[in-house]
Request: fold
Amino acid sequence: MKNTISTIAVAITLLFTANFAQASTVKTETTTIEVADSSQLQAVYDAYFTVKDALIKSDAKLTSAKATDLLTAITAIKMDKLKSNEHTAWMKVVKKLTADAKSISTTSDLKKQRETFKSLSKNTYDLIKVSKSTEVVYKQYCPMADADWLSKEKAVKNPYYGSSMLTCGNVVETIK
Reply:
């Protein structure tokens, strides 16, 4: 009888230990996936900022090249790795983001690039509000262009007019 009780106690201990180890493994995997999620969208945000910076320089050729990089970042997103709320937001904006990035990348007309950048900024903003960037982002507004853009810097550098009106605009929102 004592051997049977001891055997049952050992079996229960082993089962408990195995379940605990399995639960720890699942928790670790979940954490790893969450890190991958945010870095995926961060690549899109970072590419967006390089397009904005090229527009500030009024360099149509550089803007086109950076928009091609943005397109690559957009197509690299693995939707099944996004959190539920990010996936929903992504599905709402992905077609427009792709079309805008493609449009900017295929033209060397700075005026057209800037006009398309308005839509690109709006859709990037809709996405970043849900998923958050790894750093503080400022939504800025230019009354002359009647358009917003996103920046990692609080100082205004206007992508819609470049050097002709570099500081035209103001910060309208801080996204943390």
